[in-house]
Design brief:
The chain contains 5 helices and 6 strands, in the order H-H-E-E-E-H-E-E-E-H-H. The chain is α/β, with parallel strands linked by helices and 241 residues long. The N and C termini lie far apart (50 Å).
């Protein structure tokens, strides 16, 4: 099958990796601003080491460092693991035969990003990636993890007009019952993903696959255009102020 053009040619984990980089930059910027402000205040007002204002500014710096170390850095670490997991699964999917499979990474359709979409004669699959180190017990999976996977499946079904299978893929974790279903979501480790897809029997015609791809490209293109229009309006509004 032929590669699809933009906006489907995004790299795996592109959105997540960009968020990690922004968080890191903002964290460094915040620490730098507080540190520089403390030094400038000391110079401007001649604070001594025992001056109350100097001590307050130092406390503000320490408080900022506490917040960063206990809340921001763990968040950055989780986001970084998530991006790495998407990249790992994306690399596995990119090894599929492009004559049989179309793989789309980091697809944005308005309600969050879909990590991966796989389309072929064997069907349409939404792939939600998780970085949980494990072990993973399928019967214990619940809540937002499953709701997110099911919501992505329904969104793809509306767009393509075809039945979609939802896959919940753990990048490096041990799964106690690989390929088992939990509330209509199939759970498996990343290493089993190519084998599972390869064993799925063809259920779609070439025409159905092409139509599903075309509908998906149209939906992605329309969403990107809407996002660009909103960004342009927001930028224009900020200039007015």
């Amino acid at each position: 099958m032929h590669d699809l053009g933009d906006p489907t040619r995004r790299s795996a984990g592109q959105h997540a990796r960009a968020m990690v980089q922004r968080l890191r930059l903002r964290t460094l910027l915040a620490l730098g601003i507080v540190a520089v402000a403390t030094g400038l205040l000391g110079r401007a007002f001649g604070f001594g080491l025992h001056d109350v204002f100097f001590m307050l500014s130092e406390l503000a710096l320490l408080a900022t460092m506490f917040v960063v170390s206990h809340y921001v850095l763990p968040l950055v670490d989780r986001r970084d693991r998530g991006a790495s997991a998407e990249e790992h699964v994306g690399a596995i999917l990119d090894q599929l035969d492009r004559r049989e499979w179309c793989v789309i990474h980091d697809a944005s359709l308005g309600r969050g990003n879909m990590d991966h979409i796989v389309i072929g004669r064997a069907g349409v699959f939404s792939v939600e990636t998780k970085s949980h180190p494990g072990p993973v017990y399928v019967r214990r999976l619940h809540g937002d993890t499953l709701r997110q996977a099911l919501a992505q499946r329904k969104a793809l079904e509306r767009i393509t007009g075809l039945q979609v299978e939802s896959l919940l893929v753990f990048s490096r974790a041990w799964v106690d019952r690989p390929l088992a279903r939990r509330k209509e979501v199939r759970v498996l480790p990343a290493r089993m993903l190519p084998t599972y897809l390869g064993r799925c029997r063809p259920s779609l015609t070439a025409e159905q696959v092409s139509e599903a791809q075309a509908r998906l490209v149209q939906a992605l293109t329309e969403h990107r255009a809407r996002s660009e229009r909103l960004a342009t309006r927001a930028a224009a509004g900020s200039r007015l102020w």
